[in-house]
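Open question from group meeting: does this chain pack into something compact, or does most of it stay loose? Before anyone orders reagents, we agreed to write out a predicted structure and look at it together. Recording both the input and the output here so the notebook holds the full record.
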Amino acid sequence: MDQSTGRPPTFGDPAFKRLPNGKYQLPIFTPEHLKNLAATIPFGDPLVQTYGLALLILTFTFGLPWSKRHVTDEPAKGFLARHLGQEDGTHIVMHRVRNLGEMVLNLLDVPGIEAPLEQLAGGAIESGLAELTASRIYKLAKLPHRFVRPTGKSGSDYDLEVVFGNGEAVCVDAKCKLEGQRFTKSGVINTLNKARKRNLPRDRPGAIILKIPLEWAATPELLQEIDDAVSEFLNSTARIVTVHLFYETIDVRPDRINDGLRIKEIVNPSFDLDAQSTWCVFGDNVDLGSRDKRWLRLISLFQKPSLRSRIWSVVGPITGT
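Structure tokens returned:
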């Protein structure tokens, strides 16, 4: 819904927008609104139905021109469009649309959500999605957090503030290595160094969460090289608490897609702000799915009515604040 009118937005009018007073209008999706949207999707393959619903959510949020430009017009190098030229590629990019729609829906209550939504609205799809995925990871890990609006100032231009399990508020910068980007060890180290030097403060605990491309994660030898690069980076600094690496796992089957989210945590052994605190959040190589009962999976809207009613009794209204 549109917060200023209380009515569902039209397809051409984005529900997410910056208002003249500098504040932001966020979309509001109630259970009834989502049920009505789901009812407009023709019966068929639940994965295709879920794709259609995600596209409606994104179109309501960012407007029809945005959806045409980034999804349905299928730009040659569009991250959310069918550009890979093979059946598996079509499944993967449809999964990306479903995943993005689901994250927009589930993360509207995170303080500062305007920051990644503004990136997405402006066409920075992969970086905005990486920030949303970082929030998804911390939400599923039950870590309180908020997005931080960009300042452009060195030392205070990080993306999230996350309260770790030891109660410490950690400044986290989210970085993204783009799909199709060639791996180099120096490239990974340079990305981490940019976060440390330009964005993270010197007088507070800092961390970096880095999205790596799916094709990098497919090779164990390459994953080891990435680990080595992160370890080399951490050996050069005593003020970064940890680096969280993450990538999606997508297993395309004839009747379904099995998706997961794998996180590798590398804690800095020489972090010196508080040597007595425990900074480990995830452990080693954790597969963090979206099975938490507080996380609404869009595909659940196309399942049995009795199951849907139980889901809604837990989730309740999903709103932007």
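Observations to bring back to the group:
The first helix runs from residue 31 to 39.
Confidence is low (pLDDT under 50) at residues 1-7, 306-321.
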